[in-house]
Q: What sequence folds into this?
């Protein structure tokens, strides 16, 4: 299969920056109206074939070019950013002859993530605490970077699936990714055009790269597949279990916690679904528990972020009333049965002025109970 894609978008943004109701003098020359255009063109070809009954191969290549322009406004020149990437991919699937439902899959891929439009626009956002004169490393201005390049990720995935006789499954996946030109905000002291003093500015910049890897295991089976002498009432109970472990390392950032942002160290999920014959064929219930450990990430040499762990418990009841064809299906869902506060903290160090800035946040979570009714006509 061969194809092509084209996309064009246009946007206008109006922004005013005020401090105590007054416009910051240094920003007047940048204007407050910004127009931008984005154009994406892609072409791809891919094919799939099966040399034997047990083997199948899927291969392809995709070329994509993205051009982004921001109109000139005030003293800012027109911003133009062009990125183009060729992304090959290869998937190989093997099904053992003795177990035709089982499969082993190997994937080699290359993907990319282009910068966001706001990351490319150089118009600054001034820190409100220190709007003029020198500022501190922990109270930096923010601005975009027109020279950003897209992130490139080259990776390999290996997955195995084994199907049990009554429909249960045991699967495992391992992956590794090598990321080049990783985009991350960095704070540097700059000579700026909006103030006579040098100021600390946070801009997205391309770093050397990062490497991430992970392992995932999933298990799903009925009780009678695990326990031959299970009581009749429990034989159809479905058990679900999933565990994942992730790790990453960002090059150029010292410390043991130089991980990717927003990547947890792992997760654990356990669930049960069951139909209660004694209460009627249509009466069912389920329960799910999930846990994500807390994270501690060294985002830059001077900025660290910590987030608390997350524990969530959900449950449901389902039943039917009336005739089979025109009856009503009911579902009572209870999400986040034991609400817990989600906490996070950030710590910034100003190495020049020897200042430490800390911030904390607490977000309350709530129990959600809902009742849904479905009727067929």
A:
């Amino acid at each position: 299969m061969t194809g092509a894609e084209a996309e064009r978008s246009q946007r206008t943004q109006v922004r005013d920056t005020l401090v105590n109701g007054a416009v910051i003098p240094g920003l007047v020359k940048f204007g407050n109206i910004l127009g931008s255009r984005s154009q994406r063109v892609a072409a791809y070809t891919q094919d799939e074939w099966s040399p034997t009954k047990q083997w199948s191969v899927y291969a392809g290549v995709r070329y994509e070019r993205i051009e982004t322009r921001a109109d000139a406004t005030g003293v800012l020149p027109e911003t133009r950013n062009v990125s183009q990437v060729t992304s090959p991919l290869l998937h190989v699937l093997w099904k053992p002859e003795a177990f035709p439902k089982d499969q082993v899959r190997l994937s080699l891929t290359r993907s990319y993530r282009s910068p966001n439009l706001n990351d490319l626009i150089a118009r600054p956002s001034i820190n409100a605490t220190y709007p003029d004169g020198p500022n501190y490393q922990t109270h930096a201005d923010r601005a975009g970077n027109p020279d950003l390049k897209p992130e490139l990720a080259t990776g390999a995935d290996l997955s195995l699936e084994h199907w049990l006789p009554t429909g249960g499954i045991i699967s495992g996946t391992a992956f590794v990714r090598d990321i080049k030109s990783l985009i991350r905000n960095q704070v540097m002291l700059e000579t700026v055009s909006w103030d006579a003093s040098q100021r600390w500015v946070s801009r997205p910049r391309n770093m050397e790269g990062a490497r991430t890897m992970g392992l995932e295991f999933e298990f799903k089976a009925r009780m009678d597949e695990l326990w031959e002498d299970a009581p009749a009432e429990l034989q159809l109970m479905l058990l679900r279990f999933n565990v994942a472990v992730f790790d990453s390392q960002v090059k150029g950032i010292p410390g043991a916690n130089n991980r990717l942002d927003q990547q947890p160290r792992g997760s654990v999920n356990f669930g049960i679904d069951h139909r209660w014959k004694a209460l009627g064929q249509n009466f069912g219930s389920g329960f799910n528990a999930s846990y994500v450990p807390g994270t501690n990430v060294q985002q830059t040499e001077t900025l660290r972020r910590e987030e608390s762990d997350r524990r969530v418990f959900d449950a449901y009841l389902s039943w039917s009333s009336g005739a089979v064809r025109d009856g009503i299906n009911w579902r009572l869902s209870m999400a986040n049965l034991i609400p817990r506060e989600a906490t996070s903290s950030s710590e910034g160090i100003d190495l020049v002025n020897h200042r430490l800035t800390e911030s904390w946040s607490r977000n309350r979570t709530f129990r959600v109970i809902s009742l849904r009714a479905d009727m067929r006509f």
